[in-house]
Design a protein that fits this description.
The chain has 505 residues and is an all-alpha fold. Helices cover 71% and strands 1% of the residues. The chain has a two-stranded antiparallel sheet with strand order 1-2.
């Protein structure tokens, strides 16, 4: 017991240090502005120093590019607006928030939560939120937009700290990005890069998107248990009691009950339409050539589909409950939702410039290639080598958030190297995926981190980046510990990774 208290006090001291140090940093908007300026200078110094590396996938030499050259200064000025407009999360967030905003301001979410939580056991809520978050990553980036603010509302409705709910959901979706009960688009994307990398050694190798499926299923339940424990034993005690504004819990009125009935009917009709467009063999949203639903117009349409899942039932609820009396009320609720996105839009503009400059400079790619070569040459073998790949992927993930972009560079180094040591491409990909997910919650370069920060400031206007990272850091720490333990157990027992895929060739 005494050792447990000591470990907890050490962790608290470390998290307090992270929080204080992080909160001494400027506002996130200022940080991204400063990073963008720093990247301009660093890119120039990197080119002068002759930084370069050979891309193992293309065999082309990747050189550092100075962004202070005449043509690149012109490029920065002429493409600045496009960098912002094409910033992937921007459109997704704003589109989804129109639907979520109407659901919130019409009263649908409030009424639905009161109905669902009226008889729910508090012990079930935390693992349920986390499990849904982990499974939600099958819907891609949509879950990172929807789940954190929704989980904050759920916790607040239960009288718990809303930031604990937000952190649990964000960590579940972002940190559990390589755990699921379903094969999804990420599995397909990574398998494509793994196949090309493996064909360097075996030209006949064919990758199966479900190559890690059994391990991902086990990971889903392990991470759900770990994140639930971290939330209740570490995050909530550190946050303490929430002293902000709470909504009082009132019984549902007759108009609210009527609104929920109408919203339920609308939701069922909407789901039936989506099912008609996806389930039949030749359905509208399936791939017209292959009939696939994983790689299909359906997966590319998830953002508007999710928006509709909130918007149309919310309209039905609002009309029936009397909170939407005309199209003007609907437009006003959408506008109110957009007005809360002001700080996010400012941060997104500056983050888009920094991330674009970072990509144009080639510095991230060079660091990834050099780091992979270093790991290849230090002489590790067996489990230590594989854990080294996990840790290296964790660190690179802080610099390059895109899972597929990193694997396109790292795969052609690690997959052939481990094939020659007798390990299957599926096992190498698994080691990378674990590392790629662990640090997702705490990297500010993940494009949805500013969105999480903006949502958190709804409950604490003065909340700094350091506080949010200190709340999320325990998830990354414990995910790393237990995921690596699970990985080691799988390795020692030589368990199958997925259908037709073992650890060894």
């Amino acid at each position: 017991m005494e050792n447990t208290r000591k470990r907890r006090s050490l962790l608290d001291g470390f998290l307090n240090f992270v929080e204080k140090a992080g909160n001494k940093l400027p506002d996130p908007a200022t940080i991204f502005f400063g990073l963008a300026i720093l990247m301009l200078l660093l890119s120039h110094l990197a080119e002068m120093a002759g930084w370069q590396a050979v891309n193992p996938a293309t065999k082309e030499t990747v050189k550092a590019v100075s962004l202070l050259k005449r043509e690149n200064v012109v490029r920065i000025l002429t493409e600045m607006v496009n960098n912002f407009a094409s910033f992937p999360p921007l459109g997704l967030v704003l589109v989804v928030m129109m639907g979520v905003g109407v659901a919130e301001y019409s009263g649908l979410i409030n009424a639905l939560l009161r109905r669902l939580l009226s008889g729910a056991s508090p012990s079930i809520i935390v693992p349920a939120v986390i499990l849904i978050g982990v499974l939600g990553n099958a819907a891609g980036d949509s879950a990172l937009i929807i789940m954190p603010p929704l989980a904050a509302m759920i916790f607040l409705s239960m009288g718990r700290h809303p930031l604990a709910g937000l952190a649990a959901a964000y960590a579940a979706v972002a940190g559990g990005f390589s755990a699921n009960l379903f094969v999804n688009m990420l599995d397909v994307l990574l398998a494509g890069f793994t196949e090309k990398a493996a064909q360097i050694i075996d030209p006949k190798y064919i990758a199966n998107p479900a190559m890690n499926y059994y391990f991902l299923i086990a990971s889903t339940f392990v991470l759900t248990a770990v994140a639930s424990w971290v939330t209740t034993k570490i995050v909530e005690p550190r946050l303490g009691e929430y002293t902000g504004k709470r909504e009082e819990f009132h019984p549902l009125t007759e108009s609210e009950k009527k609104g929920l009935r109408v919203a339920g009917i609308v939701a069922l009709i909407y789901i039936a339409i989506i099912a008609y467009w996806t389930l039949p063999a030749n359905a509208l949203l399936r791939d017209p050539k292959t009939g696939s639903l994983i790689v299909s117009p359906f997966m590319k349409s998830l953002v508007p589909i999710m928006t509709g899942l909130f918007l149309f039932p919310a309209i039905g609820y609002g009309v029936a409950a009397g909170t939407i009396k005309s199209d003007k009320d609907l437009a006003a609720q959408m506008s109110k939702a957009m007005s809360t996105m002001g700080s996010y839009i400012v941060i997104a503009f500056l983050a888009a410039q920094f991330i674009t400059f970072f990509n144009w400079s080639n510095i991230g790619t060079i660091l990834a290639i050099k780091g992979a070569d270093f790991l290849k040459n230090i002489g590790f073998t067996g489990l230590p080598l594989l854990i080294g790949i996990i840790i290296f992927s964790c660190l690179i993930n802080i610099l390059i958030a895109s899972a597929s972009a990193k694997w396109a560079v790292l795969g052609p180094v690690f997959v052939p190297m481990l094939m020659l040591l007798g390990y299957s491409p599926a096992f190498t990909q698994l080691a990378y995926r674990i590392g790629d997910s662990i640090t997702n919650p705490i990297t500010p370069l993940l494009a949805y981190f500013p969105m999480a920060l903006a949502s958190a400031r709804k409950y604490d206007e003065k909340l700094g980046m350091g506080t949010l990272i200190s709340i999320l850091l325990p998830y990354s720490i414990y995910f790393a510990i237990f995921w690596i333990i699970l990985f080691a157990i799988w390795y020692m027992l030589n368990l199958p990774l997925g259908p037709g895929n073992m650890i060894h060739l």
